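Before surveying the methods themselves, let us examine one representative protein, written as a sequence plus integers encoding its fold.
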Amino acid sequence: MDKVPILVAGDAGKMRLKKLASHFESHHGEKPEFFIRVPGRVNLIGEHIDYSGYAVCPMAIEQDMLVAVGRRKENGISITNIDSKYENVDIDLSPASFRELLKKDDIKWYKYFVCGLTEGIELVAKSGQEHISGLNASIWGTIPPAAGLSSSSALVCSGVLAITHADKLHLARDVLATQSAKAERLIGTEGGGMDHAIAFLAQKGTAKLIEFNPLRAIDVTLPWDAVFVIADSMKRHNKAAFNNYNTRVVECKLAAKIIAKKYGASWRDIEILSDVQRILGKTLKEMADIASQALSDCDVSEICRILEVSTTELSALVKIDVNDMRTFHLRKRAQHVFEEAARVIEFQDVCSLEGSNQIQRLGELMIASHRSLRDLFDCSITEVNHLVDMALESGAAGARLTGAGWGGCVIALTTKDEADEFVKNLGDKLRKVYGLGDECDMETLIFKTEPGQGAAVYLPDF
């Protein structure tokens, strides 16, 4: 794949670069050498299946992480944020210092950037060159935090790109995406690679079908009259601060191993649900049926009995505590994954075949996706479900939660002719339900979006 492009900012972008450059100079005493931009993303369909190895369909959005970067003579790295509510930090510029910082349990905004720096330095080391010893960075994010639009992953990707570009190591975008996915796990989230892949591989004007193992991005041309609208539930959920996200990852891995065991496959070699599908040679529909028959709710003792292992052996195979008392909902989780993976394929098929009912069919898939996330994956909440219902009542062809869930945003589908009326209707409902006054800027809560550009480097030309 090609490398991250070096672009010239338009007038609006140049205004932001100038403002961030001014902040950078006031804090670091010198001008930045370059800027990097990493967009947020909205996932159209394919939720909670990337870490099981299945394809997803996201697109980059306008909101982004913008970072001004410059090398400095002193050792260490100084990180500032243009938003004064986020604290600044100064630390040694070394993997050892970074990893020590990341061991601490507190979740700080800059730790995502540090995750990226850590793995970026690993890439520099693998290239055979030494990384720089001093760096300044100033960050300006416009992605709502913990809203399901990939603010954390954009910060991680920014860290990887900042250090590699500063070291003049210009790598392929798929390499940067893969390393960024690895980097975010340093903060404790056992996620997949969707967010990082679309951050680097996105192209303006097209959504992407992102496939894994190996990583590949395929253009998905959306219907000409389709308009996607993001609506914010205003309920926040930081997936690194809670264990419900990682629990879903564990449940999917356990489901894969148990299916493999019951069907006579070498289950110890099976890591994810797509592995067991490949080994068994079944369709997604057949795998969903297998999941409904072969799986159930299990605690650790029952899982050990099925797999014929001790709790100690199980904890070595899957990240699970030997004294874990939870019930794991394996059937529902696996059913969602297989059925959602099939919906992604159908979504792509509908987009590729023009027809008069494209919008209706895509909307139906989005509705089915949300119901599955709500009922099978248990990752939605009352406020998000209500927002989906309000979007449908306001005229959307389809709507669903987007991102990890447990709060955050909804993505809704409408048409060009109906988009403005839809946004107004949904805005009126939100004002009434949430008791929002005239002073509330509704454009930050409900906004149309379209496929945007992936990560890029900008040089100061002002």
